[in-house]
Amino acid sequence: MTKPTKKLFIKTFGCQMNVYDSERMSEALGQAGYTSVETPEAADLIILNTCHIREKAAEKVYSDLGRLKQIKTARGAEGHDTVIAVAGCVAQAEGLEILKRAPVVDFVVGPQSYHRIADLIARAQKGERDVIDIEFPDGDKFQHLPARRAGARMASAFLTVQEGCDKFCTFCVVPYTRGVEYSRALSEIVTEAERLAASGVREITLLGQNVNAYHGAGEDGAPATLAVLLRRLAQIPAIERLRYTTSHPRDMSEELIAVHGDEEKVMPYLHLPFQAGSDRILAAMNRRHTCGDYLELVKRIRLARPDIALSTDIIVGFPGETGADFTATMEVVEQVEFAQAYSFKFSPRPGTPAAAMEDQVAEDLKSARLQELQALLRAQQSAFNDACAGRKMPVLFERPGRRPGQLVGRSPYLQAVHANGSDSLIGEIIEVDILGAGPNSLEAEIVSVPNRPEMAAAQAPIG
Ligand code: 5AD
Ligand code: SF4
């Protein structure tokens, strides 16, 4: 008799690094006999891969655990055991506290310990209490995880190249939850990228909390920069697009800016957080750059790649932020004109210096500032999208859209693009006419598909 497979459900919160970690965990657990299911009700093992970056993200985990408790009880009544795990940055930050506050949790695993997850499951299943692994081991968890396999017909994939952060911005939990900066060796990354390419991936987004500080061992053993890594990955023929995120302005070297100017595979899109426009607030945030430094950097990047789409992160209501400080933030936005942006109200995170600062800004003032800022950012995003109407653009189609016959892809500038076309175009980069723009996406028409026999059937318009 064959052993029945066990069912796994992972819910991912937060950033793309968690998305990548969840994929790697499910691959590792796949080797241990788990198959993924769509709902927690159907799962023998439920993992919440959590985010601690802002208060709301962490609170969502506890409210989910309340619901999971009911599911576990209901499954128990039907004779099924359910193992519940909390992974990710809440696990790292709160550790044992989670097991105390939510006894439904069977084990807690931090982001650096995923290669030991099968062992943790076994311990929890034996009835061991307080199973927890939030060590920061030396070296690279990825080396201990099974080799990467891309899902079927995955056009675009994430690849974590760097983890952790030594910058210690005073508002941020990352240096505490993900630990010190660590870069994977270049050869290990190239091997993973080649495997992704072989399975049909056309676009890779390199991930790291401080990705442009990448300094992994290069081919000669000496540290290699992100610029060197990008140029090396660009040599993989099937990889046609490269992106990276998230970058710190201090690590935006001339060498890296030059890559945007002359490496065609590096897409004209850059996420470059500036957080605040006032130098006084930037200093209190320990950002180690001024507003002038940022604007100067933007100028140099645009000189290298004039059409680059810039994206950013902004915090409003950092402790001590005055009306004039907030105006300085608005002025940076007005000057740069972002194609896209993420903006947040400051959220005091336990253990970070900013949480203990005096002059915390009142919640309603933070909300009012955020509203004003987001109105400006929305207008800029719409203007950027509108300016694309009437242009031709190469689009990498990634998946079917919501409507029958519709496909969704990405422009070079990372905009979502909708067009009618056959599913066989998924994974292809196709030149399209942009017909119109909405605030969050572009509408396009596929005018011609590559002249290859297997594509002929794909050309017939649908709808
Ligand atoms: N409060 C609000 N926003 C924060 N971010 C990080 N920490 C906080 C915090 N305590 C934002 C920053 C960062 C993004 C990932 O999240 O803008 O760039
Ligand atoms: Fe957090 Fe980014 Fe600052 Fe590092 S550089 S502490 S990850 S905001």
Can you give a write-up of this model?
Strand 18 and strand 19 (441-446) form a beta hairpin. Helices cover 34% and strands 21% of the residues. The protein folds into three domains: 6-133, Methylthiotransferase, N-terminal domain (Rossmann fold), CATH 3.40.50; 157-387, tm_1862 like domain (pyruvate-formate lyase- activating enzyme), CATH 3.80.30.20; 389-459, Nucleic acid-binding proteins (OB fold (Dihydrolipoamide Acetyltransferase, E2P)), CATH 2.40.50.140. The protein has a six-stranded parallel beta sheet, with helices on both faces. The chain has a five-stranded mixed beta barrel with strand order 15-16-17-19-18. The chain has 14 helices and 19 strands. Helix 13 runs parallel beside helix 14 (363-386). With 463 residues, the chain is of the alpha/beta class.
Care to give the gist of this entry?
The protein is an alpha/beta fold.
